[in-house]
Amino acid sequence: MLGLRQTMDMSVTFLHVMSSNTPSAGLFCETMHGFARQKSVVDLGLWATYRYAFDVLGELFYGKMFGFMHEHRDVGGYMKAIDSLLPAFTIGGTLPSYLTKLYFLSTVIISPSVRGALGAVKHIEYASETAVERRKQEMAQETEYKHDILRKMLEINADRGEKINFTYKDICVESHSSIFAGADTTAIAINSILYHLMRHPVAYDKLTAEIDAAVTDGTISMPVAYGEAIKLPYLKACISEGMRLHPSVGLTMPRLVPAGGATISGFRFAAGYRVGINGAVVQYDKYVFGPDAESFNPERWIKGDAARMEKAMLVFGGGARTCIGKNVSYRFGSTVL
Questions:
Q1: Which ranges in the chain belong to alpha helices (H)?
Q2: Considering just the CA atoms, what is the radius of gyration of the chain in Å?
Q3: Contact assessment for residue 188 and residue 246, using Cβ atoms and an 8 Å cutoff
Q4: Any idea what DSSP says for residue 258?
Q5: Cis (ω within 30 of 0) for the bond into 223?
Q6: pTM of structure
Q7: Are the C-beta atoms of 151 and 158 separated by less than 8 Å?
Q8: DSSP state string for 216-238
Q9: What is the Cα–Cα distance from 53 to 325, expressed in whole angstroms?
């Protein structure tokens, strides 16, 4: 497991890679322009989330896209695998530990779709291991320099892997598990933002006007870089509001009560109990977000106490366990919109 220092290293690498335009962003814009010229109907839920998300994650981790946008298809069946496996993983992850193994075994036996999805998972595991080995050889031969997450993990392993127990196998596991975790959660976030904007034409028009003005005065370029997009206040507000109303993980983020027990919000919990907070509940708290907490209102992030509301956002967890992919999702949302 990566420690605090290594997590900070990874976060810095995320920010470095995201600070400028990437080939995937240019390809996405080019593809959308092509659809517009042809006046084609576009499934944004498919294109702006899964296909774009997978290819950007490919760039972040392996220095190149998987090919979802180039080939206009589900490369390797990864999207289908996620759609098949996540419901099973969600249930299995919330069951008592003594039932988990029995549940997963019975699910694999009963469900053909889950069995097929496991094959796709093995495929991406193999692809990840191949990419890690190839990059290791490139670094040894100094044939190519790519500043991506895979390089950073290999550097951590080489510099202090034995000391922190971060092995070569851990690199392979981290890389392919991050692809599955990052693609789906990012897709959910962007879908939520797009859904609410399309249902609220006033907010949609205001965001469009802000972006058009920024392009005209040169504040942002095309395709937009992450460092430029975050300068647009209404865009940031729409992203925060969309993520607030539909957090990507609608489950509690459990913690075990320590030895001696604990008192939380006036309730006493014995040691060993599992407690947690669900973002899908907390992020609708009217005491924090106002009487219209159930409505899509980006203005609350501009006119209200944004710092106070941010503390109640559990989209990416909180504290020391905050997801290091937080900036990745914000990057996706900013550049796609």
A1: 4-18, 23-37, 44, 52-62, 68-71, 78-94, 97-110, 112-141, 149-164, 168-199, 201-216, 226-229, 233-245, 279-282, 286-289, 300-303, 306-311, 326-336
A2: 21
A3: yes
A4: P
A5: yes
A6: 0.83
A7: no
A8: HTTSS-SSPPHHHHTT-HHHHHH
A9: 12
Cα-to-chain-centroid distance, residue 158: 27
The Cα–Cα gap between 133 and 288 comes to: 49
User: Looking at residue 2, what DSSP letter applies?
Assistant: -
* Ramachandran quadrant class, 271 (left: phi over 0; alpha: psi -120 to 50; beta: rest): beta
State CA 63 to chain mean position distance: 18
Residues 6+ apart with CB under 8 A from 202: none
DSSP string, 111-161: -HHHHHHHHHHHHHHHHHHHHHHHHHHHHHHT-----SHHHHHHHHHHHHH
Please state, in angstroms and rounded to a whole number, the distance separating the CA atoms of residues 13 and 152: 7
pLDDT over 50 (residue 15)? no
59: tokens are: 């760039």
Per-residue pLDDT tens digits for 255-298: 899 999 999 989 999 999 989 889 999 999 999 999 999 999 99
